[in-house]
Design goal:
alpha/beta, TIM Barrel, binds NADP nicotinamide-adenine-dinucleotide phosphate
Length: 301
């Protein structure tokens, strides 16, 4: 069975509904051989969508080392507005100050190109959901358009959340939106549809709700709290009669890809067995419509 695909909105790119989120590769201390095997297994499994960011530590450098030679096999998305020039491997996901000046936007793109040994990024997304006012203050979109005209990137996107997302969609400049969504985090369900109806590609993060198990000890406290809250929501909802042999992870992933307007979900893992399980789950496609509807009803109750 192969992975289902969709068209990433007006980018026209065909992407697998299961993508790979490379945030888990932020440590510079990961064994290069293991990272090599993992990222090549991602591509060998048929996944053709990879998301990373300048502020995921060593993630971009791992991608450059392991799979730059297979660059034509994946749609490569990174971000901008993040701190630039930080030591690779500096731990932790986003959270440090983001700056949307033209200089910092350009510096991020140039750095991503160098780190990932490529001459083009398929998509560059403004990170941490800046408001249209923040972007306008620095003329940040114009810088990405200049970089696109120079051939350094192909499409422009934004990592968007409420309350700014409707205004970001209304700007009409974004080819793709990165939005959180899962069975236990449905706040953006309608906004995903709005983004797709406006012609944007929709890239879902949080699609397996961070794997459901207890958050890792090295996560920042606010992430741990968020994960525990989602887990509680999951535990409070009895799905046992809906699982029909599926693991909870498979159920969560297939719930996410059941959203009719989601184009790809970028699930992160550095465990090859989890990667294989996610590929198998996504290959089974969306949940049957009545199960998706019933799960939504129970999570809403
Ligand atoms: N735009 C933003 O602001 C933003 C913020 C956060 C993330 N992102 C992007 O979104 C991607 C996804 O991040 P996320 O926060 O949404 O996390 P996620 O992909 O929902 O979950 C990742 C976690 O789930 C675990 N996991 C994955 N598959 C599993 C399986 N089959 N069984 C058990 N555990 C499993 C992973 O641990 P193992 O390594 O042990 O498998 C990891 O701890 C990131 O990589 C990044 O590219 C963007």
């Amino acid at each position: 069975m192969s992975l289902p695909t969709s068209t990433l909105g007006r980018t026209g790119a065909t992407v697998t509904k299961l993508g790979y989120g490379a945030m888990e590769l932020r440590s510079s201390r990961l064994d290069p051989g293991e990272v090599n095997r993992l990222l090549n297994a991602v591509l060998d499994s048929g996944i053709n969508m990879i998301d990373t960011s300048p502020d995921y530590g060593a993630s971009e450098e791992h991608i450059g080392r392991a799979i730059a030679h297979r660059r034509d096999e994946y749609f490569l998305a990174s971000k901008c507005g993040c701190p630039v020039g930080e030591t690779a491997g500096a731990d932790g996901p986003a959270g440090r100050e983001h700056v949307f000046t033209r200089e910092n936007v350009r510096a991020a793109v140039e750095q991503s190109l160098t780190r990932m040994h490529t001459d083009r990024l398929d998509l560059v997304q403004f990170h941490i959901s800046p408001s249209p006012e923040t972007l306008a203050e620095h003329d940040a979109v114009a810088e990405l358009i200049d970089l696109r005209d120079e051939g350094k990137l192909r499409f422009i996107g934004i990592s968007g959340t409420l309350p700014h997302l409707p205004d970001q969609i209304a700007m009409g400049v974004f080819d793709a939106f990165q939005i959180p969504y899962s069975a236990v985090e449905r706040e953006h369900e309608e906004a995903i549809t709005a983004a797709a109806q406006a012609g944007g590609g929709t890239i879902i993060r949080g699609g397996v709700a961070r794997g459901l198990p207890e958050p890792r000890a090295d996560y920042p406290e606010r992430y741990k709290d968020m994960i525990r809250a989602r887990n509680e929501r999951f535990e409070e909802t009895d799905l046992s009669d809906l699982l029909d042999g599926m693991s909870e992870m498979e159920f969560m992933l297939r719930f996410t890809i059941s959203h009719p307007d989601m184009h790809t979900t970028i699930v992160g893992t550095k465990n090859p067995d989890h990667l294989a399980a996610n590929v198998a789950a996504a290959s089974n496609g969306p949940l049957p419509p009545q199960i998706y509807a019933e799960a939504k009803r129970r999570f809403a109750a």
